Every structure is written in C-alpha cells, then in structure tokens.
Amino acid sequence: MGTMTQPNELGEFLRSRRSRLSPTDVGLHGSTARRVTGLRREELAVLAGVSADYYARLEQGRARNISDSVLSAVADALRLDDLERRHLTELVRPARSVSSTTSKPLRVRAALRAMIHALDPTPAVLHGPRMEVLAINRAGAALLDDFEAMPPAERNMVHWMFLNPKARAVYPDWSDIAAQLVAILRLAAGRDAGDQLLAALIDEITAQSDEFATYWSDHRVSQHTHGPKRFEIESVGALTLNYEALIPPSDPELRVIIYTAEVGSPSEERLRELLKSRPVDVGT
Q1: Is 142 helix (H, G, I), strand (E, B) or coil?
Q2: How confident is the model over 7-39, as pLDDT tens digits?
Q3: pLDDT, tens digit, 9 for 90 and up, residues 67-116
Q4: What is the pLDDT of the chain when averaged over all its residues?
Q5: Of 172, 185, 173, whose CA–CA distance to 218 is shortest?
Q6: pLDDT at residue 220 above 90?
Q7: H helices then E strands: how many in the chain?
Q8: Cβ contacts of residue 278 below 8 Å, gap of 6+?
Q9: 121 cis-preceded (ω within 30 degrees of 0)
Q10: Backbone region of residue 49 per phi and psi (left: phi > 0; alpha: psi in -120 to 50; beta: other values)
C-alpha cells in the first residue's frame, strides 16, 4: 500500500494536531508527569463534547456517519485553522473515494500554455494539483530550472525540490520552501484519496529523501497564495521576488504562479540582467 494511501490518514492527522496541544493551552490543569506528547484522547474528547470511546473510534478510522457538528466540535477542540478544517472535512468526505483511479496526467488547454509563455519576461509557471510543472516560460526557467527539458517524470516542483541539487542552490530558504511544498502536497492528498499518480510520487520521493519523509509525517497543510521568496542565482546574485498564485476559472485544479520584483529595486535590475542571457521563448 502506498505511503499516501495508508488506511487511516484521518487518525494520523488528528493525532498530529492533538500532539501540538498541551493541557495548559486549552485550560486543563493536571499532573505534569505525562508519558504522551500533547493532549490525551480522553482530554480531547472532553473538549469536543463527545465520548472518549467515540473519539477513539474516530482516530482509529472506525467511526461512521460523522456529523458536521461533531467535525466542527473536534476542529474547535484541536484549534484548527481554516485550511486544517478544510483538510479534516476532506479526509472524512474526500472529493473522490479511495476506490477511484485518478491515474491520468492532466491535459492543459493550449491557450493556457500560450498565456504562460506570453507573460515573459515576467517569470511564470503553471502547476497541476500534484505540483506538476505543466508549463514554464523563458523567465521562469531562468529563475528556477528548465523543467521542459527534463524527463516528464521529473517535471514536478516537489520532485525537483528534494531530488535535484539545484533547488538548494536556488533557494537560500530551502527548508522553509520545501516544507511548504510538502504541505501543499498533503492538502492535495486529502482531497483525492484515490490519486494513484500522487501516491506513486510520494512513495518515490519518500524512498529517496529522509527530509521529505520527515516533513510528510508532520501532516502540515498549506496552499499557494502570495508572498516574498528569496532566490540565489549564480550569474546575478540574490533576488527577492513576490509571488502570486492565480486560479484559472475554467481550470480550478491548476495554479498560475507569477513572480514580480519591486519596481526600481536591485532585484528588478538583477532579474532583467538574468534574462539578457536567455534566448527568446516563442512558446509552444
């Protein structure tokens, strides 16, 4: 059985969130001598207003017909944020069942690929839900790597991040970026428990990277939104760029990531300098 599709993802997630909390975090005052990290099952059950037996069955994956009110109470007790609440709901009621066989690569509209290339000289990347790099323009390749020249199986941001040494050179904050990408993948795994391609990807990287396995076991969830990222490019030096993640309305499972520099900043000049050495990208 694949790493992603282990029998009780729900229980693993609940235990990981429970272990974050201490009795004092939630106003419980008891013995300081504890053999477990975080709250005990019984303590969480009290906070959620359910029986200890029911909560135990929930963590063991044996609870059935879980109501919205119980899910909300458990989420409140675990102090989940909005994204973690969404993940919890998707683990209980996945968009596709475990028996589904999502195993085909995505087909991307030609116009969407053309848009990515037309955005040049602004770096732009088109990601799929498994962090596949479906398209990248000339500026994006100069900033990150030439994904379109790689074998198809390697055209994936998480695969590249953990298994390609260039990623560590490009990102000075490699550990932070790597952890975020794993958390994005974890969110995707909860959304579709039957995605065989995603399961295979996770198994492959886990087998080759202990760091990935450690991040994966954290059960953190995240999504691309916006923010600054630092880059180190051998030919021009350090850049700080802002990224924005855009969702095409007709293709909500995809993400367009655009990188921009502050106007008049050294990063803008260095990005311009970087692109001078790249051939013009005519697109596909």
Answers
A1: helix
A2: 588 889 999 999 988 887 776 665 555 666 788
A3: 889 999 999 999 999 999 999 998 887 665 444 445 566 788 999 999 99
A4: 87
A5: 185
A6: yes
A7: 13, 5
A8: 138, 139, 141, 142
A9: yes
A10: left
- For residue 96, the one-letter residue type is R
Distance CA 56, CA 45 (A): 8
Query: Which DSSP string corresponds to 170-231?
Result: H-TTHHHHHHHHHHHHHHHHHHBTTBHHHHHHHHHHHHH-HHHHHHHHTT------EEEEEE
How large a percentage of the chain has pLDDT more than 90?
Answer: 65
3-state helix, strand, coil in the chain (%, to 5): 50, 15, 40
The DSSP code for 156 is B
Dihedral (CA of 95, 57, 67, 52) sign: negative
Other beta carbons within 10 Å of 77:
22
Name the 3-class secondary structure at 258: strand
Structure tokens at 94: 């996945």
Can you list the alpha helix ranges (DSSP code H) found in 60-109?
68-78, 82-92
Angle CA 224–225–226, to nearest 5 = 115
- Report d(CA 260, CA 156) in Å as an integer: 22
Which amino acid makes up residue 148?
A: E
- pTM summary value: 0.83
Closest CA to 248 of 129, 166, 160: 129
